[in-house]
Structure formats: C-alpha cells, structure tokens
C-alpha cells in the first residue's frame, strides 16, 4: 500500500504541513550534519501524503493548484530551510513526471505511486543516438537535490541534431543506473543532498525523454493525459514558484527566531531589555512588511498563471514575464528581511546552534539559484516592456 495514499484538500495539506514544522525544526541540525534529509523526515513527509500534492489524481495524488502548493512549501520551510527546499524540488519533480508521455509515467508510478524523481539541469554530456533511444557513455551532472531518496533521475542533456542546435532533453533513468557523487558541501541549504550524479553506459529509450522546449511552451505530452491546469503550465513563470517559496518560509522562521531571542535578551552594561530598542523594532517591522509583500507577490503569481490556463487554455506571455519578475523580486525581499534581522541580532547569533545564522545562510543560498537571479529576471521583464524580447528567455 502506498504511503499517504489519500488525496488531500488544500486545508488538509496546510494543516499537515503546519503539524510537521516543530518536528522538522528539531531535526534541523541533524539534517545539516547529514547533508541530506534524515530518513525519518522523508518518511514523515511521505506518510503525510504531502509528497504527492503535485501528482495527478489518476495515480492517487492530490493535484493541488500552484498557489496551494506554495502555501505548503512556505510552511515546511519555516521548520527547516534544507527540508523545505528538498521538499519543494521533490514535488516540482513530481510535476515533471506528469509532463512526460504516458508510458514513462506508468513506468515511474504504475507499480509504485510513491515514486520520487530528482533532476539535474547542469553539466552532463551529449548522448549518442542508437537504435530505439539514446546512449550516455560517461557524464557527470550537478545539483541533484533529494537524489538520496529518489527512485528515478532526469538528466538534462543536449541531443545532437543533423541540422541546427542541439535539442535539449530530459533523460529519465532509474536511479540504480547512476552513481551518486557525495560532493554536496554547501554553506547554505547544507542538508539538501544536492549531489552530483554520474551516468556511465546508460541506455534511455525514446519514450523516456522529454523536450525542454515542450516544457517551456507548456505543450509537454503529459498534458494529453493529465488535463488539470497544473499540467498545462509552462516552465518559465511556474518553476520559479517552487524555487522561491522556500525563501519566504525561511524568512518567516528568521523573524520568529529573532522575536523569541529578543524577548529574553538584556543589555550587558545596563540590564535593560533589548526588546525595547527602537532600532530593533524598526528592523522587525521592516522585515515583516518585506516578508508579507513577498508572500503576496508569489501567491498572486501562482494564482494568475493558473487563472490564465483555466480561462484561456494557456498562460499569457505577459503573465509569465511578470511572474518571473515578481518571484525573483520576492526572494530579494526575503534576503533583505533576514539580512536586517541577522545584523541586528548580535554576535551570539553566530553560534552554530542559532537558527538565525542557519536562516541567514539558507536564504542566501536560495537567492543564488540561477532561476532566482534578480538582475536577469528584472532585465527580462524590462526587455518585454520596451519591445526587445518576449521576456521569457534565460541568459
């Protein structure tokens, strides 16, 4: 029987996420020490059915809307940034599985509806065309978040074409056919297990490939069998919600930690309570406003792309360009909020047991992801505004 096999309503999903916050917070230090999710955390998430909120209902998933998904990621990230990030990427990858063709979906979920996917966008090598599919001789891909608990990996690779540039495709492979390289030693989001993987002498049949351009266009083959709005969303303007949501939860955790420690702190020279410091209160108010603004922008972006799909059959390019702008800007707001709180927290916040220093490292790590580049995303929206581009390309 599948873990957490019941479909959840949005209210049920957020309630279960809320209940897990103290559980995963208690394991935050262990998560960083392991450099990946503890097995018991993965089991808790699986048993809660929260791992399946982006999975189509026909496989037993909840198929929640993108805005509801944001709410769950936000909550879990308040307990532990590494856990929230790993969870967010795992359910985003579940969305990816639903965009592959039907045969590939059945291979992943047909006999194991709990099947987990990890992806790699960076590195690798061009595969060779062979009878019936593609062959990877020897390549290494980076940043496979959650790979330790995955059943499958999807590696983005340039497939050579006779004419024109390579066709970028995701190659779906059972995890036991690749090797995990234990090279994740990051300062922030340290417990995400975002290791490299090596693939040697691996055959990938054609039906287990997915064109990146189809993801960008919102025309992936999975939408033919999964007709919910979630599976007609394009990559740009949608993927960012998964990648920005943890920043909000991390910032909320930092604010809660700052309030808790400030209530009991005294000035060493006078014994006066730190909580009465007007500068600290200004920092707190500014942080709260930034965090709430970020939540509003990200949730609105998620609601707008979904509304477009429901009303128009596809998300409008202007909506997608604004979504990527607002998501990246929201991460910047969260970084500013945590930075301000951390700088006003005193030297004791540097202690390795302090949640604030972990929140500070984690929120900066979220901002380092290429999809969250503030300059790139603001420029793209600006290019659209003045007619230079559609505002959807990267680079």
Question: Could you give the topology of this structure?
Answer:
Blueprint: H1 10-26, H2 28-34, H3 39-47, H4 66-79, H5 81-97, H6 102-110, E1 117-120, E2 122-123, E3 128-130, E4 133-144, E5 152-159, E6 167-174, E7 178-181, E8 195-205, E9 209-211, H7 212-217, H8 239-264, H9 278-312, H10 317-343, H11 355-368, H12 374-385
Parallel strand pairs: 1-5
Antiparallel strand pairs: 2-4, 3-4, 4-8, 5-6, 6-9, 7-8
Helix pairs in contact: 1-4, 4-5, 4-8, 4-9, 5-8, 8-9, 8-10, 8-11, 9-10, 10-11, 10-12
What does this structure look like?
The protein is of the alpha+beta class. It has 3 domains: 10-110, Acyl-CoA dehydrogenase/oxidase, N-terminal domain (Butyryl-Coa Dehydrogenase, subunit A, domain 1); 117-214, Butyryl-CoA Dehydrogenase, subunit A, domain 2 (Beta Barrel), CATH 2.40.110; 233-385, Up-down Bundle (Butyryl-CoA Dehydrogenase, subunit A, domain 3), CATH 1.20.140.10. Helices cover 49% and strands 14% of the residues. A hairpin with a 2-residue loop joins strand 3 (128-130) and strand 4.
Key features?
single chain; 395 residues; alpha+beta; Butyryl-Coa Dehydrogenase, subunit A, domain 1; Butyryl-CoA Dehydrogenase, subunit A, domain 2; Butyryl-CoA Dehydrogenase, subunit A, domain 3; 3 domains; 5-stranded antiparallel beta sheet; 4-stranded mixed beta sheet; 9 strands; 14% strand
The SS-based structural class is alpha+beta
Overall geometry: globular
CATH topology of the largest domain: Butyryl-CoA Dehydrogenase, subunit A, domain 3
Indicate the radius of gyration in whole angstroms. Answer: 21 Å
Q: What count of helical segments does DSSP give?
A: 12
Oligomer: single chain
CATH superfamily of the largest domain: Butyryl-CoA Dehydrogenase, subunit A, domain 3
How much of the polypeptide forms β-strand, as a percent range?
5-15%
């Amino acid at each position: 029987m599948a873990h957490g096999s019941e479909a959840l309503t949005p209210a049920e999903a957020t309630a279960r996420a809320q209940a897990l916050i103290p559980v995963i917070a208690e394991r935050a230090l262990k998560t960083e020490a392991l450099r990946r999710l503890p097995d018991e955390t993965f089991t808790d998430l699986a048993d809660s059915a929260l791992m399946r909120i982006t999975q189509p209902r026909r496989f037993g998933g909840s198929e929640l809307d993108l805005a509801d998904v944001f709410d769950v990621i936000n909550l879990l990230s308040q307990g532990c940034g590494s856990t929230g990030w790993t969870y967010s990427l795992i359910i985003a990858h579940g969305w990816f599985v639903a965009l592959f063709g039907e045969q590939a979906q059945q291979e992943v979920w047909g006999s194991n509806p709990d099947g987990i996917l990890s992806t790699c966008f960076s590195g690798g090598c061009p595969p060779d065309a062979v009878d019936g599919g593609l062959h990877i001789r020897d390549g290494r891909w980076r940043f496979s978040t959650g790979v330790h608990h995955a059943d499958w990996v999807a590696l983005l690779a340039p497939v050579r074409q006779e004419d024109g540039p390579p066709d970028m495709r995701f190659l779906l492979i059972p995890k036991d056919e690749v090797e995990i390289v234990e090279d994740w030693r990051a300062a922030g989001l340290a417990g995400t297990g975002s290791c490299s993987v090596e693939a040697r002498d691996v055959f990938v049949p054609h039906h287990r490939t997915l064109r990146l351009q189809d993801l960008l266009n919102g025309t992936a083959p999975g939408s033919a069998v999964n007709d919910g709005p979630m599976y007609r969303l394009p990559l740009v303007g949608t993927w960012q919600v998964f990648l920005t949501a943890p920043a909000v939860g991390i910032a909320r955790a930092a604010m809660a930690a700052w309030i808790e420690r400030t209530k009991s702190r005294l000035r060493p020279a006078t014994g006066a309570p730190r909580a009465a410091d007007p500068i600290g209160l200004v920092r707190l108010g500014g942080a709260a406003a930034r965090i709430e603004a970020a939540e509003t922008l990200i949730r609105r972006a998620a609601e707008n792309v979904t509304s477009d799909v429901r009303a128009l059959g596809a998300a409008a390019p202007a909506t997608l360009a604004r979504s990527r702008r607002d998501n990246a800007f929201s991460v910047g707001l969260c970084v500013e909020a945590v930075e301000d709180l951390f700088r006003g927290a005193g030297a004791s916040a540097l202690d390795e047991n302090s949640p604030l220093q972990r929140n500070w490292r984690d929120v900066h790590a979220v901002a380092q992801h290429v999809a969250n580049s503030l300059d790139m995303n603001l420029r793209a929206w600006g290019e659209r505004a003045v007619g230079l581009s559609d505002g959807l390309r990267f680079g």
